[in-house]
């Protein structure tokens, strides 16, 4: 997610209202109103923009980037996600997965042991509708964590594809997950 980090360094931080509008676009519509939303205050600090009531968390995009990424997931995934953010803030992006895996093995990092879903929504910052938070030509991705799953047991490939077909990433690990990315372009069968 480091694409475009040099985008308009003097750019004004989005209003909390617009950050919330963008963030909740990642969630299924029935989860949007009650989701907790994290984003950025006017000094750029990561903060809670809105408390939640339904057990879902949405993340507003980092508006220093030219591509806005928003995510939504159940509270059960927050320890994994929060630890990832913390490690990135410490400059440990490359080591993040190895550190989290070790902490999971040591019992320091909880991870749901039943399937849980992360919803992603992203697109160009320049294409954001400030009234609705929708992004023109936005992309979506769905990630279903299925700890320790094996592709063959699920009847899935463990190879990425551009057809929008589900596939299993990080096979056999504590954070094995089914990736579903709707195709970016139309394809012929």
**Helical coverage, percent range:** 10-25%
Low-pLDDT runs: 1-10
User: Based on DSSP secondary structure assignment, what is the total number of beta strands?
Assistant: 8
Major β-sheet strand ordering: 2-1-3-4-5-6-8-7
Sketch the topology as an H/E string, one letter per element: HHEEEEHHEEHEE
Ends distance: 31 Å
Rg calculated over all Cα atoms: 17 Å
- Major pleated sheet: 8 strands, mixed
Question: What structural category arises from helix and sheet content?
Answer: alpha+beta
Averaged pLDDT: 90
Our estimate of the beta-strand percent is 15-25%
Count of discrete alpha- or pi-helical segments spanning 4 or more residues: 5
Shape: globular
Brief sketch in words of this structure:
By secondary structure, this protein is α+β, with helices and mostly antiparallel strands. The chain has five helices and eight strands.
Describe this structure in words.
- This protein is α+β, with helices and mostly antiparallel strands and 189 residues long.
- The chain is 21% helix and 24% strand.
- The protein has 5 helices and 8 strands.
- A hairpin with a 5-residue loop joins strand 1 and strand 2.
List keywords for this structure.
alpha+beta; disordered N terminus; 21% helix; 189 residues; 5 helices
Layout of strands and helices, then pairs:
Layout: H1 16-24, H2 29-32, E1 36-40, E2 46-50, E3 56-59, E4 67-74, H3 78-89, H4 96-105, E5 116-124, E6 139-145, H5 151-154, E7 167-169, E8 177-180
């Amino acid at each position: 997610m480091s694409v475009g980090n040099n985008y308009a360094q003097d750019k004004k931080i989005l209003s909390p209202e617009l950050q919330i509008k963008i963030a909740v676009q990642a969630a299924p519509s029935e989860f949007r109103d009650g989701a907790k939303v994290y984003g950025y205050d006017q000094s750029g600090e990561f903060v809670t923009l809105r408390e939640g009531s339904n057990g879902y968390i949405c993340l507003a995009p980092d508006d220093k980037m030219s591509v806005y990424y928003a995510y939504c997931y159940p509270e059960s995934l927050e320890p994994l996600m929060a630890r990832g953010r913390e490690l990135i803030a410490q400059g440990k992006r490359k080591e993040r997965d190895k550190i989290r895996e070790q902490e999971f093995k040591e019992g320091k990092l909880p991870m749901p042991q039943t399937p849980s879903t992360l919803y992603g929504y992203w697109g160009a910052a320049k294409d954001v509708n400030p009234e609705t938070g929708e992004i023109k030509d936005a992309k979506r991705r769905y990630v279903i964590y299925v700890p320790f799953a094996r592709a063959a047991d699920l009847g899935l490939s463990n190879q990425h594809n551009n057809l929008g077909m589900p596939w299993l990433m990080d096979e056999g690990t504590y954070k094995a997950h089914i990736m579903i990315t709707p195709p970016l372009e139309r394809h012929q069968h």
